[in-house]
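Quick one:
INPUT:
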């Protein structure tokens, strides 16, 4: 049986942006709260000075670290440009904490590795008012500037729920009494007609492999999106949009 993590990771509290322009944009946005800026000790010149001025104006502390440390923290050795910022994501929290509030409808991302898809799903689900989007720390695209850009900035305020893996999340959700439904072409029930329990979680599988075997073994039922046209499947972010707004139509997003 999988056991939920109890230690709150910094990745469950902040979204890390890296690169000079994204960091400056975060510092200049009055709606965002930046916890800290980390600047490589090799960063010098006008660009570094501009970041330091912006951080001072925003009341944000600047820490110096080795260039290697910045690359490790950013998780991107080619585009960090020697600077990163930890931006507070006020609605992001561990899945274990969210389950105490029992949101009625949540999404679970399982193996979605394209940042654009993750970003668009975050934007769509937030727009639809879903109670949470489970984004595991492993097996899914990192919540980085590419995801933030694809979400048009909504990622900062999306109700992101964090855990280690999709399999851990599925086990926790089932254990908390959620029906676990996966979207797939093999679904025997139409998304538009299937009865749903009071609390339900919906699994969106990866772009290539779909829903993982570990998660599939816990699924309550499979749902399909009727497609009378000659198209085999939808992009996962498009499928997520159909799902989210079907829940809006039913009046059961939260």
């Amino acid at each position: 049986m999988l056991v939920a993590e109890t230690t709150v990771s910094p990745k469950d509290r902040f979204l890390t942006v890296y690169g000079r322009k994204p960091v400056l944009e975060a510092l200049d946005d009055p709606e965002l709260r930046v916890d800290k800026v980390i600047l490589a000790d090799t960063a010098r010149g006008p660009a570094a000075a501009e970041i330091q001025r912006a951080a001072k104006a925003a009341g944000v502390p600047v820490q110096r670290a080795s260039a290697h440390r910045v690359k490790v923290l950013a998780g991107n050795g080619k585009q960090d440009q020697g600077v990163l910022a930890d931006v507070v994501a006020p609605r992001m929290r561990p899945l274990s904490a969210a389950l105490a509030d029992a949101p009625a409808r949540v999404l679970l991302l399982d193996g979605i590795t394209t940042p654009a898809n993750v970003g668009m799903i975050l934007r769509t689900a937030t727009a639809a008012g879903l109670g949470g989007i489970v984004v595991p720390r492993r097996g899914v695209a990192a919540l980085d500037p590419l995801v933030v850009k694809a979400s048009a900035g909504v990622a900062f305020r999306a109700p992101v729920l964090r855990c280690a893996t999709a399999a851990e999340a599925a086990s926790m959700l089932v254990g908390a009494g959620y029906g676990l439904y996966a979207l797939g072409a093999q679904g025997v029930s139409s998304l538009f007609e299937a009865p749903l329990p009071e609390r339900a979680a919906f699994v969106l599988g990866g772009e290539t492999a779909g829903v993982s075997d570990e998660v599939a073994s816990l699924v309550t039922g499979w749902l399909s999106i009727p497609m009378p046209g000659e198209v085999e499947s939808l992009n996962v972010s498009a499928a997520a949009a159909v799902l989210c707004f079907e829940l809006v139509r039913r009046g059961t997003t939260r």
